[in-house]
Amino acid sequence: MKLMREKCKHIFDDKSARNEMLEDKAFEIKEAIQKAKEDQSPAYTMIITKETSECPEKSLNYFADRPWKGTYVKTLVGNTVEDFFEETDIEGLFYQLIDNRKGIRISHGSVDIDRIAEEISEYQKNNGGKSDDIDK
């Protein structure tokens, strides 16, 4: 028995395999936390602008086609069209709609709830999202 104990004493000294397993688990947990944060963050950002008095010769169509040239009004975030129109009246202003997860602009133009609902729905269909996220 003494000989067996002596010969086997250092068999479990090398813990590198266990450390690798712990590292893998830690990485899996980190990814799960990041995914949970992404799932909880708003899917879309809408930047609202209005025509600028510095360019009185420019038409409203000019600012609808280039809302980034207008005067900043506010930034809204949400997951549904209703989220953007809950607390504020932004009809008649201009917008840029951004996908927060991909960091790309989806659309821009004059604010119109029906048009924006259609654009988000179409965008989700084309990008594998759930179009029933938009309650319009």
List the helices and strands and how they pair.
Layout: H1 2-8, H2 16-40, E1 44-50, H3 60-65, E2 71-78, H4 81-85, E3 94-99, E4 104-110, H5 113-126
Antiparallel strand pairs: 1-2, 1-3, 3-4
Structure characterization notes:
It is a single chain. It is built from 5 helices and 4 strands; from the N terminus they run ααβαβαββα. With 136 residues, it is an alpha+beta fold. It has a 4-stranded antiparallel β-sheet with strand order 2-1-3-4. A hairpin with a 4-residue loop joins β3 and β4 (104-110). It is rod-shaped and about 95 Å long. The relative contact order is 0.13.
Extended strand count? 4
* Low-confidence blocks of residues: 130-136
Mean pLDDT over the full residue set: 82
- Major sheet description: 4 strands, antiparallel
Beta-strand content estimate: 15-25%
Shape: rod-shaped
Tally of alpha and pi helices: 5
Q: Which structural class fits the helix and strand makeup?
A: alpha+beta
Please tag this protein with its features.
disordered C terminus, alpha+beta, 4-stranded antiparallel sheet
